[in-house]
C-alpha cells in the first residue's frame, strides 16, 4: 500500500478529487479533500494521476513512501488559438468579444451548411433557417439588426477570404459551398473592437471559418456517413372537406352555379404535396504528410430530399489543403482549393399556398380536362382556368421543373515569410479567387392549367457568374522584451473586387416578340489599409488598437474613404498576485473595447452617378406607328457616405474550479449612425420617390451570459452542460420619417411592418382589434386611437416586433464509457409573428370569388373569428399578431463508440432526431419565422438520422 | 490599384447623359419617357420591375389607374370591392396623409416634373429644330403635371430646374399662373393641329388644357376666367379635331368606338386631343386600359366578350350614375345580370351594376394584339373634344360670354351620337349648370374627371349631393370640406421641412 499527497506544482496547494489508477487495471482511487490518498500497489506498477486542467502524470512505483506528486497545470487550454483576422492570438490574449466554437462542440445531425453547426451555441448569435427545405439559407444575426437598407448578415471569412455577402443565382445558400466536415473551428467576432480590423464589412459581426489542415505524422483517414429520413410534423389548419362543403352550402353568395362547382371528394392537399424525405451524406478525408508536406484532402457527397415533393439538394465537394514549410520553417505556405458542385431541384413552392386554399372537395385528377389528367377549375366562358383561380397544387408541383446547378471554386495561396535576417518580422501575402458559375432553368409544362389561350408551355433559364478576387499583403512584427512586454504589430493592404455577369432568357417574351434575353452586369472594388497593435504587459494587461481605412467604388470619390478605429483593453486578473494563488479561480479577465465599423454591404453600385436606364421592349412607347425605347434618369444620391456603427463592449471571461465552470459575460451598446435607409426624398428634387440615403440612427444594447459546467467528470462518465442567454434591445433612435415595410399576402400593397423612431425596426403596425365579451374579435371593430370617430390609417399603432427579447441555448453532453448523448435546446422569448396564413385567407367572402367560377378554401381561424370581408383593415388587425415565443428541442443524438472492434480504428455509430419538440402558443406551423411574417412557410421536417464515423 | 476604385456602369441597359442627348434621334427616347410616365410604371413591361415609384405596388402607380382611383372611385361613379391597402378609404372618404394612392399620385406627378425639367435642360443643348419641338412638348407635359397637382393637392412646390435644394410650396394662384404662362408660350411652339405623330401633342392640346385650366380658375384662384375658357374652347372646337361619328362596328352609335382596341384608327383618334398609348405587347402595364377592363369584369360576365382572359371582379358603379341615363342613351354601358343596382355592402361584386365601357376588341370584334388576353390595346384619352364642348357650355352658363345656341348645338352633337338619332336632343331651355354636370357624367364617366367636376360644383364634400356610401355611410353623407383636396404625402412632408400639410390632414 502506498500513501501520499497530490498538490499543484506552483502553489503546493493540495488537489482534491485526483483520479489515481494502476495502469492496465481497474484498480484505483481518488484523493480526499486534503489531497491524500492510499492505494494497494506492487513494485513496478505504473500509477496514473489525472485531473482536469492538469497534465496527466505517470509514476512507476518503486517503494516511495510517501509518494508525493505534483501536477502541472495543463496550459494547452490557455494556448488555444483564436483566429482574429490577419493573425491569431492565444485565447488568454484576446481583448474583444470573440467566441470560438471548435469541431468537438459542433451541432450534429443533418447539417448541410456551416451556420447550422453553431446554432444555439453562441450567446447573442441567432441562426434561423429560412425554411425546412434542404440546404436553404439561414438568417444569421449577431446582436440584432443594425441596418435598414443594407444587409444585416455577418461577414463570413473562410481561410482568410471574406466571402461576397450577396447570393448566387440557383444556390440556396452561399455558405453551402463548404462541407461542414471540413470545418475545424468557427470564431464569432461580436464587438467592434474585434471586428473593426475588417472595417467596412464587419458592421454585423464576423464569422471566421477555419478549415481543417494537414498535420504531421501518419496518415489518418476519416469516414463519416449518415442517412436520414424527414417527415412533416404538422399541417396548416384549413377547413376539411365537410367543413368546407357546409360553409359553401350555407354561403350567402351561393347559387346554383356555385353549388354545382362543389364535388364530393375529400382531398387533403397538404398530404398530397408533402412526403417523407430521404437523405444521405458521406464524406471522406485523409490527413497526413506526403512527400514532406502536411496535407489534407476530402471529398463529400450529399443528397437530401425535401419534404415538399420534387425538392432535392445534391452536393459534391472536394477540398485539398497543403501546408508546406520551407527554409527551416521560415516560409510557411498554405494552399487551399475547394470545389463544390451543387445540383438543386426546386419543388414548386407555389404549391404550398395553393394547398392551403384549394378546395378540399375537389379531386386531384380529372382525365376529361386537357391538363395532363389533373383537375382544374374551368371558366365556362373561356374553357380555361379562370382568372385569379388557384391552380391544383399537385399539378403545380408535377408540371413545373425547376433545376439549377452551381459550381463554385474557392482557392487561396498564402505565404508567411519569416525574415531570415530579422526573425521578428513576418511578411504575409494571401491571394484568393472565389468564382462561381450557376446555370438554371425552369420548364413549365404546356399541360399546366392557365388562363392563357395561347399557352404552350414556358421555359426560362439563367446563367450567373460571379468573380471575387482578393489580394492581401501585410507585415507582422512580433517582439517580446524582458519577458514582460509582448508586442505584435500588423500592417497591410487589401484589395478585393466583385464582378457579376448575369444572363437570363424567357421563352414567353420571345413568343410575344419582346426582348427575351437579358444581361445584367456590375462590378465593385474595395480597397483597404489596415493596422493593428497588440501589446501585453506581464500577461496581465493587454491592449489592442486597430485602424482600417476602406475605400469603396460604390461611393462618390469625395466620400469614398472611411477610417475605422478601435481600441480594447483587457486585464487578466488571474495573473495578479492577489488571485494567482486562488484555488478556485483559474481565469478572470476583464475586457473593455470600443470600435467603429462602416457598412455599405448590399448597397447598389454606381448610385452617385447620373445614369439612364433603357426600357425593355414590352415597356416601350408608341409615337405614330413606331415604338421607342425610353430612357429614364435613375434616382441618384451623390452624397452617400459610410454607415457607421460604434460599439462599446464590456466583458468578463471566467473559469473556476479547475475549469469545470467557465464562460463569459458581455454587455454592449452598439449605435449605428448615418443609417442608410431606402428613404423618401422630395420627388421634386430627384428622379424617384426614394433613394438610399444616410438618415437616422439605430441602437442595440444588450447583455450576454454564457456558462459551461462540467458537474461530473470521471474516467467513465462525463456530464457537461452549457447555457447561454442574450438579451437584446433594438431601437431606431432617429428616423425623420416612417417607413412601411413587410409586404403581406392579402390585398395588394398591404404592409404590416414599420420602421419608426423610438421602436424596434420591423415593428408590426396594425389596427387594434376590439373583442366581444367572449374574447371573440368583432369584425371591423377597431380602437379609434386618435378619437376622431373615423377608423383610418391614423389609428394604426405599433404592436410588438418579430425579434426576440431573450434568446437562450441550453445544451448538454453526457458520455458514459463508450456511449455519448447530446441534447440541444433553444428558446426565444418575446418574439411575435404575423400569422399571414390565417389573416390572408380566413374570410367567408373569399370562399366564393366574384367571378363565380371557382371556390376557395379558407383557414380554420374563420371558425373562430367569423370574419366576412377581406378588407385592408381586417388584414392588418392586431388579432393576427401572435406571441411566437418558443422552446425547441432541436436535436438529440445518441452515439456509441467501438474502439477495439477493428484494429487501430475507432468506429462511432449514432442516431439522432432533429426538430423533436416545439413548445409554443403560436397557432401557425412554426413560430420560428425569419422576419416575422408567416406566409406559405415551407415546414421544417422532423428528421431521424443514423450515422457512422470511422477514424483509422 | 487606387484607380480601380473608379468603376462605371458596365450593364448594357445603362446609359450616360452623353449617350442619351447625343442628338435628337437619341433624345426622342428620353422624350418618349415623358409620355410613357403617364402610361407605364417603369422600365420593365407588365410592371415587372424597375418601377418609377417605389412607394406603392408597381401596377397601382400607373397614372390613369390612379386618376380613376382618385377622381372616379371617390365619387358616385365608382366603388371597388378589393381590400388593397388604402383603397377602400377612397370611396369611404377617410383617407389620410399616409394613403398610398393619394400619395403615389403626388409622387408620380412630381417625378414627372423632375423628368421634364431634366429633359428640358439637356435638350436645350441640342441644335436640331426637332429638339425645339421636343422641348415644347416637355413643357406641355410639365404644365399638365402641374395642372393635376393644382387640382389634387392645391399648393405644391414650383420647380422648373433640377436641383437638390428643398423647395417650398408655391400658392395655388402662383402655380395656376405658371401653367397658364407656360401654355400660352408653348401653344405657338407646338406643331399645328394634327401636325404631330399620333400620341404626341400639338397646339390644340395646349388650347384644350388652357380651357380646362380656366374652367377651374374660380375654385383654384378665386378669380373666374370663364371668358378665357370660352375663347380657348372655341379655338379647340374650330380646329381640325372633330368628334368621331363613324359607327365602325355598326351597333348604332359611334360612342363605343372611343373605347375599343383599335381606337387609334377606327375614327376615335379624330377627337383625341391628348392621350396615352397602350399596346398589349409593347406597352404593357396592369394599370391603364388593362386595369379598366379586367377590374370591371366579375359575376356572370364573360371575359372573352371584352377581349381579355378573365375578370378581377373589382369596380362597379353606383345607382346615381345609372340613373343619369335615359332610355336610348347608348353611352350608359352597364351589365346587370346578377348585379343589384342598390349597394348593400361594397366588397361583393354583385352590389352595384358593372360597367362595360372599355373593351379590348376592335371594331370587327377581334381581340387586341395580346392573344393571351392579359394586356390590352385600348388607348385612353386624357382630353378629348367632347369635354371641350362641355367646357364651352359650362363656361358660357357661368358667364363666360359664349353663345348658348352654339352650346346647345355642341351638346346635341354628343347626344345625337349617343342616341344614334336626334331623339335625345335638347333645347336651350334644358341647358343649365346641373344639366351640364350630368351630361359630363354621361359623356365622360370613368375617364378621370368626376371629382374635379363635383368640386367645381361644390358637390364633392357637401350634403348638396349624396351617393351610396359617400363618406362611408350607406346612404351617403357630407364630409369635411378639406377633403376637396388630397393631402401631401406624409413621407414627403417629413423629408422636406419647408412643406406645410394641407389643412385638415
Strand content of chain B: under 5%
The name CATH uses for the topology of the largest domain in chain A is: Maltoporin, Chain A
Structural class category of chain A: mainly beta
CATH secondary-structure class of the largest domain in chain A: Mainly Beta
Give the overall pLDDT of chain A as a whole number. Answer: 90
Question: How are the strands ordered across the major sheet of chain B?
Answer: 2-4
Number of alpha- plus pi-helical segments of chain B? 17
Domain count of chain B? 1
Distance between the termini of chain B: 55 Å
Count of beta strands of chain B:
7
Summary of the model, kept short:
By secondary structure, chain A is mainly beta. Chain A contains twelve helices and 54 strands.
Q: How do the helices and strands line up, and which of them pair or pack?
A:
The complex is a heterodimer of chains A (952) and B (505).
Chain A: E1 2-8, E2 19-22, E3 28-30, E4 36-39, E5 46-50, E6 57-60, E7 69-71, E8 81-83, E9 88-90, E10 98-102, E11 125-129, E12 138-142, E13 155-158, E14 161-162, E15 183-189, H1 192-195, E16 206-211, E17 220-231, H2 241-249, H3 256-261, H4 269-273, E18 277-290, E19 293-305, E20 312-322, E21 325-326, E22 331-346, H5 350-357, H6 393-398, E23 400-418, E24 425-444, E25 458-481, E26 485-506, H7 507-511, E27 517-537, E28 541-552, E29 561-572, H8 577-580, E30 585-599, E31 612-614, E32 621-623, E33 626-628, E34 631-633, E35 643-656, E36 661-673, E37 676-680, E38 690-694, E39 697-713, E40 717-734, E41 739-743, E42 751-755, E43 763-766, E44 769-771, E45 777-782, E46 797-798, E47 806-816, E48 819-829, E49 832-835, H9 836-839, H10 844-847, H11 861-865, H12 872-875, E50 881-883, E51 886-898, E52 906-920, E53 933-934, E54 942-951
Parallel strand pairs in A: 1-7, 13-16, 49-53
Antiparallel strand pairs in A: 1-4, 2-3, 2-5, 5-6, 8-9, 10-15, 11-12, 13-14, 15-16, 17-18, 17-54, 18-19, 19-20, 20-22, 21-22, 22-23, 23-24, 24-25, 25-26, 26-27, 27-28, 28-29, 29-30, 30-35, 31-34, 32-33, 35-36, 36-39, 37-38, 39-40, 40-47, 41-42, 42-43, 43-46, 44-45, 47-48, 48-51, 49-50, 51-52, 52-54
Chain B: E1 14-15, H1 17-20, H2 24-36, H3 63-71, E2 79-80, H4 88-92, H5 100-123, H6 129-153, H7 172-186, H8 203-215, H9 217-221, H10 226-237, E3 272-276, H11 288-294, E4 315-316, H12 319-322, E5 334-335, E6 354-355, E7 380-384, H13 385-400, H14 404-419, H15 433-444, H16 450-456, H17 490-495
Antiparallel strand pairs in B: 2-4, 3-7, 5-6
